[in-house]
Each structure stands twice: as C-alpha cells, then as structure tokens.
Amino acid sequence: MRAVTKVVLALLLVLSLFSLTAMAGEWTGYISDSKCGAKGAKDEHADCAVKCVKGGAAPVFVSDGKIYKIDDASKVQNHIGHKVTIYG
Question: What are the residues facing 87 on neighbouring strands?
Fold first, then answer.
C-alpha cells in the first residue's frame, strides 16, 4: 500500500508541473506610450513613443489591441517603440 501512495504522489507532482508550464504564455506586441496607447502599436510610431515617454508618458505593452501597464518602466527603456515578445 505504501508503494502505491508514493506512485500516486509522484504522479500528482508531475501533473502539477505540467499544468504550471501549460499556463506559461507568449505575447507579442509593442512597447508604446500611455498617451497614444494602441494607436502607437506600429513601427512608424517608434520615434513618437520615445518622445512621449521622455516627456512623462508611461510606457505600456500593447498586444492584440489590449493595453497593459508596465510595473517597472526601467526594464523596457531600451525597447520603447519596438515590437517585442514577452514570455511568462
């Protein structure tokens, strides 16, 4: 009976690890500025996004028309106006 319990626990552990990796995702979009938002999610907007962020607008991540706030703007400073892929 003890061996069966160990096998069941091991199986549950493996299944839980698979479920965690299944929740991981990949999103592609643009680092835009909060002033223009989704309208700035294109290559032609890169220079404007940089100017707006330097002027005080917050950088945002835009993917599929949805706008996501970026908690730590310093991590995306070098990617403002660029198309990026985020893994998580």
Answer: 26
Q: Angle at CA 33, nearest 5°, toward 26 and 61?
A: 10
Report the alpha-carbon distance of residue 60 to residue 82 in Å, rounded: 11
Q: What pTM value is reported for the model?
A: 0.71
Query: CA-CA distance, 23 to 46, in Å (whole number)?
Result: 31
Sequence-distant (6+) residues with CB within 8 A of 36 are 45, 48, 49, 52
Sign of CA dihedral 6, 8, 11, 15: negative
Task: For residue 60, give the amino acid letter.
Answer: V
The tokens for 47 are: 């220079």
CA distance 50 to 78: 9
Give CA separation, 74 vs 57, 79, 83, in Å.
13, 10, 17
Single-letter amino acid code for the residue at 6 = K
pLDDT per position as a tens digit, 69-78: 999 999 999 9
